[in-house]
Each structure stands twice: as C-alpha cells, then as structure tokens.
Fold this protein.
Amino acid sequence: MNIELNSKKLLMFFISIIVFLVIANGFAIISEHFLSYSHMETIIRLFNVDREMNVPTLYSSCAMIFASVLLALIAYVHFNKNEQYLAWGGLSAIFLFLALDEMTELHEMLVGPVRSSLNTTGILYFAWVIPYAVLLVIFALTYFKFLFRLPSTTRNRLILAGIIYVSGALIMELIGGKIAEQYGTDALLYAISYTIEETLEMLGIATLIYTATTYISEQFPALSVQIKD
C-alpha cells in the first residue's frame, strides 16, 4: 500500500479543522459570558481552547505528533542517504515533547515555583514563559546554521511557521498574563487573548506540516511509504 500526501490538500484539511475549532470556541465563550444556561457547560468544556483535556487539546496534540512523525521521516531518509540528519531528528523530538506538554500541561506546573522564586508579575504573570524563553534562545542559536543550509523556500517557510507559533505560544501568553493579572482569567478580554494565542499556535503547526510535506515532495520525489506483510 502506498501512502500519498498532497501538501495543499493536507494544509486545507488542517485549516478547516482550525476554523471549526475557532468558531466552536467562540460559541463556547459567548455561552460562558452571555448565556446563563447550565446545559451550555458541556459545550464550554468540550470546545473552549483554554480548558484542558478537550477537543482543541486533542487536535493540537495530534497535529504536533503528526508534525513530529514527518520530521522524523525526513531525518530517517537523510540518515539512509548518509546526509546530515540530526537537526531534523532534534526537531522531531522537540515537537514530540511539545505534544506531550500539550496533553499534560507540563509548562503550567512551572508557573507556581518560578513565580514564587522570581516574584514575577505583569507580562510575566504566567511565569513558565521564562524557562521556555531561555530554551527558545538556545534553540535559535543551535539551529541558526542549520536554517541557512536549507533551500531558501524551506527556510522561509520554517521561519514563518516558527514566527506564527511563537507569536501565539510566547508573545500572546505575555499579553495574556498582563490581562489575567489585571482583570482576572474570567474576563472577556482574557478570553479574546487566549483565543488569538491558541489560533496562532494551531496555524503555526499547520504551516510546519505544510513545510515538511513540501520539503519531502521536493527533496525526495521518488519516496513512497509502503506497508508490507
């Protein structure tokens, strides 16, 4: 059996899911803030992107795992061709970790200890951003040369995916921290901020998946995935 992945169709598939989730999240927020019907709690619980262990969390985790698998495939092919593969393997491991983080909310466990140690307030209210920002800087320095060894189209797409994802995961989290401290996490303004945050994260991963699939089709045109008994 051969498995074929059409990059553009795959991108539109992920975009369609993201649009659905954003609309469902918007309805959940409206229900939470403007409708006082108790039976709406199920909708809120299932589709609010700020809640845990629900449909958006499942989607984001699966999308990151899928991205990790694609990056691992690229690493594997380069390995078989005796080409540099460790950077691709590292990217695969990073997004597998981010998928596990999404499922377990590991970064949320850091908020209390880091906030207590450093007395963070304002944009650093969600104090997990500090250790993750340090890791981001280390990542950027480590992968700088790797990026500029890539074909320009792939490099630009990877940078775009990174900018979109980090804008949500880090920049909007800083803004959301300031809003949460000033107005509380039940405020409508905070709901708007986390909606933008999660939307950017999902779009960043979708862009990464598109980048990986187009790289595979451009660099390994003869590649086919076969499942045999």
Observations:
- The chain has eight helices and two strands.
- The chain has a mean pLDDT of 91.
- The beta strands are 2-3, 225-226.
